[in-house]
Amino acid sequence: MDITPDSGLEEFRSEVVEFLDTAPTPEILEAGRKTTSVFAPFEQVMAWHRILHTRGWSAPDWPEEYGGPGWSVEQRYIFATEYQKRGLPPLLPNGLKMVGPLLMELGSPEQKDRYLPGILSGEDYWTQGYSEPAAGSDLASLSCSAVADGDDYILNGSKIWTTYAHHANRMFMLVRTSNEGPKQAGITFLLLDRMDYPGMEVRPIIGLDGAPEQCEVFFTDVRVPQSGRVGAENDGWAVSKQLLKHERGGGAQSPMLRHRLDVVREAAAQTPSAFGGFLADDAAFQRDLGELEAEVSSLEHFEKLAISGHPMVKDRAYPSLNKILSTELTQRISTLMTDVVGLDALPDQRDALSVGSDTEPLGDDLSLIAMPYYLNSRATTIYAGTNEVQRDLIARTQRP
């Protein structure tokens, strides 16, 4: 994919720039500056989602028939690049990048009509109920049960690492509907259209960075309609793998990573080094930054091929490879960020990190987010299936 000034796309870029420079409110811009995770501050990012929806730009990757803008791959990449240049909060991925595309592929007509409009508009937020205390990367070991009773299922058990479940009004989840045969053969995929069913309890978990981003969800004799099932009963393993393909391989991460590197480079140019001059002049820093820039460029090329429809996207190894590359780069960039900030990253500034806080931060924006970003990014190589599991999956694709 070649995007050049004479390719006829500059008029589109100008339209995007004009909108992104003027539409976000001060609170949304602040949320972008204080984002330290894949998941931006909830209230502000959902407000931004709804603003983008009014312009028809909330789901650049969706087909037009479901509300996408009908952009070319070049237009989508320009939008993603300009979006990240401004440090705007990333829209939450669970609906737009995961369950939405899954429903387009495997949902019933009734499920598409009922759920896709709310995902597109930002009225609904879906939390993901996959992991359990004894079933994370070994997802087939899950035990949260669903027993058929008339037109309903009765749920018992728990889920963990359900991101922003305390904000969610909907949930997609895997449940065990049979203990017969192989573990994978007794799993079913369910959509819950509310989070306040009698018997449901949500408990936030405080993470390493001090934020209640993750939750536990408990189910005690919770009655939910069977009409929320996607696919056949006991066929949830195949459905879940289809969704994981979107979770691990969806979207372009390189514009966000490049933005983070740009921030680090600019900060290093103003940070005194121990040897006189500035950190940006230090040979060791230049080596580390150069290596990361080269690898982000490689990922960028990889993603451009992918969104252009290159055949490699259909390779079974692609989602795992994309997940490994993007998450390990995220961790390395977060480490370089703390190297640049140094001791200024150590104070606990959770109060100042809240959007709208009256607490004056110590230091600049980078000092405020460096340590929470570093701590939060430790999880990137674990969630969505550990990178060790992803390497095993890639190896399996090479077996004759």
Automatic annotation (TrEMBL):
The keyword Lipid metabolism does not apply. Belongs to the acyl-CoA dehydrogenase family. It holds the Pfam family Acyl-CoA_dh_N. Residues 129-222 form the Acyl-CoA oxidase/dehydrogenase middle domain. SUPFAM superfamilies: Acyl-CoA dehydrogenase C-terminal domain-like, Acyl-CoA dehydrogenase NM domain-like. This is Alkylation response protein AidB-like acyl-CoA dehydrogenase. Residues 234-397 form the Acyl-CoA dehydrogenase/oxidase C-terminal domain. It comes from Enteractinococcus fodinae. Its cofactor is FAD.
